Amino acid sequence: MSAEENLATYGKCNNPHGHGHNYALEVTVSGQVDHSTGMVCNLVDLDECVRTQVLERYNLENLNFLEEFGVTVPTTENLCIEIFEILQRRFAHAHLERVRLEETMMNSFEYAGGNGAAK
Amino acid sequence: MVYLTRKAEFSASHYYHNPDFTPEENQRLFGKCNNPNGHGHNYTLEVTVKGEVDPRSGFVVDLKKLKEVMNREVLDAMDHRFLNKEVPEFFDHIPTTENLAIAVWQRLHPKLQQARLHRVRVYETPDLFVDFYGESD
Fold first, then answer.
1. Count of CB pairs separated by less than 8 Å, A with B
2. A21, B37, B105, B120 - which has most CB atoms within 10 Å?
3. What domains sit in chain B, N to C, each tagged with a CATH number?
4. Are residues A110 and B60, on separate chains, in Cβ contact within 8 Å?
């Protein structure tokens, strides 16, 4: 896009110095309850996976400098898809249903895979 | 498919009354909500649209435009209004939160072009909300 088109499309978000958000991430997994543990999956495993694979990668980083956002614009739509795909590759203890990402208290985004439906 | 939700808040007043019912029936069915002087709520509206991410912009929909449509079609008409007397949908429909969610859907659906409307959620109080997905049956 031209400089003018970028400004028209992104407005204040086009400031090259960047800006921050306090994102809130919700990860939903599904599965049958294990009879011996009473759990769908161990939350400790889920927490560990989200922490190491997502939070350590993105927390307090400038997203534009990361490889996955080298050519892809780090909109919350694209960040939501990226996090879903990371967790789908890395979390094997339950089925990943959905990732929901709040950019602000007023905006949120959900991705449930290619043709998934929001719940 | 990505789902995007935008919230807005508005305040409005209403009361519940069906002219086909007797005063006693209205009172029994609607209780305190039948007071013709009305009462107010701080509503929270959540509008969810869905679509594929545009590869050039990275957006499902331009949030500024969605906000403009929500402001123009819903908030300008309903914020700080007495729904029964000032919003045409409720001249002959009871302004329950159910009917409010449907009215919001009907106002927004024809005005959204870039992304498809998926869900309208209206919170009447933090403990009570209604979802409408546009189904006709």
1. 59
2. B120
3. 2-132 (3.30.479.10)
4. no
> Measured between CB atoms, does A108 come within 8 Å of chain B?
yes
Whether A13 contacts chain B with CB within 8 A: no
Q: What are B119's strand-pairing partners?
A: B48
In angstroms, the CA B74 to CA B123 distance is: 15
Would you state the torsion angle of the CA atoms of residues B73, B2, B55, A65, taken in this order, to the nearest 10 degrees?
110
**Could you tell me which residues come within 8 angstroms of residue A42 by beta carbon, excluding any fewer than 6 positions away?**
A93
Is residue B124 annotated as a catalytic residue, yes or no?
yes
CA torsion B94-B96-B101-B107 (nearest 10°) is: 30
Is A74 close to B1, i.e. CB distance below 8 A? no
Contacts of A114 in chain B (CB under 8 A): 1
pTM reported for the whole predicted model: 0.87
- Spatial separation of the C-alpha atoms in residues A86 and B136, rounded to whole Å: 38
Q: Tell me, yes or no, if B25 is annotated catalytic.
A: no
ipTM above 0.85, yes or no: no
Is B80 an active-site residue? yes
3-state secondary structure of A25: strand
Q: For residue B52, what is the DSSP state?
A: P
**pLDDT tens string for chain A (119 positions)?**
999 999 999 998 999 888 999 999 999 999 999 988 899 999 999 999 999 999 999 999 999 999 999 999 999 999 999 999 999 999 999 999 999 999 999 999 999 998 555 55
For residue A102, the chain B residue with the least C-alpha distance is B5
